[in-house]
Amino acid sequence: VRLVQxxxxxxxxxxxxxxxxxxxxxxxxxxxxGWYRGNEREFVASITAGGMPRYxxxxxxxxxxSRDSANNTxxxxxxxxKVEDTAVYxxxxxxxxxxxxxxxxxxxxVSS
Length: 112
Description:
- By secondary structure, the protein is mainly beta.
- It contains no helices and ten strands.
């Protein structure tokens, strides 16, 4: 399994950023893909192969997770960003391969 991230950066509070994660390898492993943040790998959002999303309460309504199955890419659109969203974001599989593979991380910095 390989996960390659792109996106992130510096934005003012209220702004938007988008993260991308190209997932390849064992299709069972990457059936459900999640986004996490910080050293504790706090759950942010996830999406199943069928497109069912799930969000942590603090980002629901501001973040949108989606996937382009044709290009094996999972996106995290982050709108109305807050200073407390500042973190390194990681994508990773959920389910049987959870915690076994991670993307390289993307820094998201939100300034006040």
